[in-house]
Amino acid sequence: MNILLVGNGGREHALAYALAKSPLCTRLFTAPGNPGTARHGENRPELDVADHGAVRAFCEAERVGLVVIGPEAPLVAGLVDDLTRAGIRAFGPTRAAAQLEGSKGFTKALCTERGIPTAGYGRFSALDPALAHVRAKGAPIVVKADGLAAGKGVTVAETVEQAEGALRALFADAGTEVVIEECLFGEEASFFALCDGTRAIAMGTAQDHKRVFDGDRGPNTGGMGAYSPAGIVTPAIERTVMETIIQPTLDGMRARGTPFTGILYAGLMLTADGPKLIEYNTRFGDPEAQVLMPRLASDLVPALLSACDGDLAGVSLEFDASRAALTVVMAAAGYPGTVVRGSTIRGIADAERDGALVFQAGTRAEGEAILADGGRVLAVTALGDSVLEAQARAYAAVARIDWPEGFCRRDIGRRAVAREVAGQGI
Description:
With 426 residues, the protein is an alpha+beta fold. The chain has helices at residues 10-19, 52-61, 72-76, 79-85, 99-102, 104-114, 127-137, 160-170, 235-255, 289-292, 300-308, 348-351, 387-399, 414-421; strands at 2-7, 27-32, 42-43, 64-69, 90-91, 121-124, 141-145, 154-157, 178-182, 187-196, 200-208, 211-213, 217-220, 225-228, 261-271, 274-281, 324-332, 344-345, 357-360, 363-366, 369-372, 376-384, 406-407. Strands 10, 11, 14, 15, 16, 17, 19, 22 and 23 form a nine-stranded antiparallel sheet that branches. The protein has a five-stranded parallel sheet with strand order 3-2-1-4-5, with helices on both faces. It has a four-stranded antiparallel sheet with strand order 6-9-7-8, with helices on both faces. The longest helix has 21 residues, at 235-255.
């Protein structure tokens, strides 16, 4: 069948890598795509994915049998709804179900309703009550923009003054809503589940590195690297997450008349009291997709089709349990602030010569040259028999990339490596 992949980031390059390997995939289109996705199919940069009518017409003209939507914005905008009404299979949640990512307040209310373990919170639409709440609760405390923020609308405030500054910055925009949460303590992990509206199957774990600098310093970013699997998520914890977080979420969404189909990406805090939900994303993560897809041993396409059809019964997804994957994000200088675009990147082919994968995100092609065209630009991924080995291979590949204007963290996977050195495995 012909498949349309929506998006242009590193996540979409990783998905294109997986989708193109399926025997069911005849042609793969990516809109708008990037130079990396073009290696696995045909980019369609002229297709405006915000124009749902144009996407529908393209699918009809090209006989597209499956649309896979990578980023969150088209999901929240209702692209799945419009394609489904036209009889086109589209993988991802409806607009109503995508509120699990589109509104943190919505998710918090569902957690309260269904008894899903999460941080205590307050939801505010005006500055003064929010400031009063912070002063009453004290610090540390977490301030979040209610809506989509590309992974960067979160401040973990260590002081009341820092929280107040974050609130004033958020409320400078009209119509702002914020969620203020208690600060949870433990280790974070990312948990993925494939959902058909009624049931879910686990789809791997990862650990992301959000802060921009080594040692988890500096502002939050969209993600500076990740590894998979997250060994800290034991089989017992996985069962607990499925039973106390994922399944109650599906039950609650179905009871509201907005069943959830697609990927539930649960950001977890593994606390002394057990796993708690930090927040949901409703799509594959970035850079988590860049470590999940290389470990996937199953054909991705049949699983996505089964989810679209509301029937995951009998579906299983196998990952390479013997190998770890680690990805290092190379970003443009200045990220997550203002970056300079247009610098030349050399050495991608050299970086991949020993089996590493370089997933492209913020890039563009100019003739044969690859130029930086965003904040997070490359995700350099490698596999290994351990996280330590994957880490060594990924950084060896990074060293072969000639891009003086880029930078990366040098400690991706450090917790997992420390556990391995201590003899606790991956």
